[in-house]
Each structure stands twice: as C-alpha cells, then as structure tokens.
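Q: What would this chain look like folded?
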Amino acid sequence: MTRALLLFSSVVAAAADTRPSAHFYFVGDVAGTQSLELNAEHIRVLSPVWIFVRPNGELKVNVDPKVLGLAAAYKIELWPVVMNQDFRLDIARAVLSDPKKVDALAGKLASTAAVHRFQGLQLDFENIETPERAGYTRLTQKLRHALGRHEIGLSVAVAAPLYSTGGKDGKPLEWHETKRSEAFDYEQLGAASDFLTLMSYDQYATPEAPGPVAGISWMEACVRKLLESVPAQKIQLGLPLYHRRWSGSVISTGSWAEAQTAAIKAGVPWKLDPLHDEPVVRFQEGTVQHTIWFEDARSLARRMELIHRYSLRGFSAWRLGQEDPSVWPVLFAGRGSGGCR
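A: My prediction, written as structure tokens:
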C-alpha cells in the first residue's frame, strides 16, 4: 500500500471515529416495530427493553426472535436495557444493598448477554435514591468486569443532574441539583462503562407544572454539569421523540403524530416556545385546559447541535415509533450513523 493510500485510509478512519454514535430505544409495540422495519438500514445500535431485575435479583428476559433476525440482517448492534422491574425502588434497594446479591446479579447478566450474543447491555435503574449509590456503582464495576471477559460492552442511563426554576413572569431560568441525581456517582459510572446516556428529557412531568419535555437551555445546562465529572467522548445526549400532554391534572405521553392529531382536532396551531425552543399546543375543552409539549425534526436538529458543540459521543433517542418521520434525515444528515463501539 502506498504512503498516500495509507494516509487517506487513516484520515477516513479518523473521520468515521468522530461521527456521532446513534443509539435508539425500542419497546416492541406496533409503532416501534414498524419504525424499526422501515428504518433498520439506518440504525446501528438498538436497546430493546428486554431484561428486568425482579425481587431477590432474579431475571426476567424477553427476547424477540424477530428483532434478533432484523439485527442480524442489518448488522444492528443489540444493547438491551436492564431495568429494575417497573422501576420499583424496593427491588433495586433489596439487591443493591447486599454486595453478594450485586455480584450474583452481575454474573447472571453477563451470562445472559453472552448466551444471546448481545454486543452490549445498558443499565437503567430508576427511582433509586442516595442509599443505592454505592451499590449501583459496585454493580456497574462488577458487570463491566464480567462482560469484559466476553468482549461485551456496557453503558448506563443516568438521571439528569439538574432541575430548573424561573422562566416565568420575566424571571430568568436557574439550575439546581436534583435529589434524584444523588444516587448516581457520575464519575465512577462513566469510568466503569463505555458510555453514559444522559436522560435529558422529562424536564417537567408533574401535574401542577406543565412545561417542556426537554427545554434546550436546561438540556445544555445538564450537559455542562455532567462534563464536570465525565469526559465528553463518554456522553450520549438523550433525545426525546415523544410528546407529553397535560389535561387538567392528568398527564399522558405519546407520539409526535398523536400530538399533531390533537392540535388539528382542536383547531389550534402549535407554537414554538422562544424560551425553551420547543413546540407547544394549548387549548381548552369545556373546563379542562390542555397543554402538549413535543419535539419535532426542527427542534431535534437544534438539540443535535449540542452534540457537536460539546464534542459528545452521540445521542440516545427514546423511542422508536414515536418520532416525527421528518427527523431521520436530520439525525443522519451528512454524518453517517456511527456505532456504539
């Protein structure tokens, strides 16, 4: 091989390494399956929600043979999600408080991943609290070691470190550390994994406070905060593909298409909120006030800019089947789809 060709090859390899890693979540519903089948050629990394930790650290594993076949046909890496069942704190606490159970769980998870020939796993324990911090760190470290023997990767989904106040009545947005983030030793989790998925969505999710799913200023503040503990090349930015709807005190979530249908039915156009840079629809039905916040291709393109501005590893999108169909060229425009490893 000539020196010029060698140089060209090294430049191409370096360019490929700098492409954002594209990572999608999948739950197996009809819309998600349709999106997976339609877009499989563009998807390089998929995290189906397949592995559940039950009481006493037992596992429930739901592997879909059809998805295995698609992954093999399109060379999609599978990094299934491992979650405490129903995100129950009692399940997580019972396991994470006992080092022996933690070590046993790490072994079971590694064996499961090896048997099914997964390329990686993603830990996603939620609703855990400060007492679980040490146990969760230990689980990540032990699992990384156990998976490493099989050359299988590991990632961890972590809670956003900040919440916001202000933004109304002329008051500026302010950022505060969340109580939930105390359960996550970001530095140690990052060191023990291939990457962290920053769950930079669900900014507002309580009945009394309708607000954006992921306001761009909040998202950027969370990135900057996480960068204090974790290198940029280990951070995947969480992108929400869904909407959140407040109907009085009732909260629901759904797809981009459902948000559009609701706006059309109400005869009200959506507006781009200038503070949060996120589309919103507001309308009244009888005595009930409805507010729908959602992401579309344009707003997600703006959030993709954060990945390049801070040289992040890539994005993790929740979840297939809920997206604005126009988002696909936005996510991959001129950058390729990348890979998780």
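The chain has eleven helices and 17 strands.
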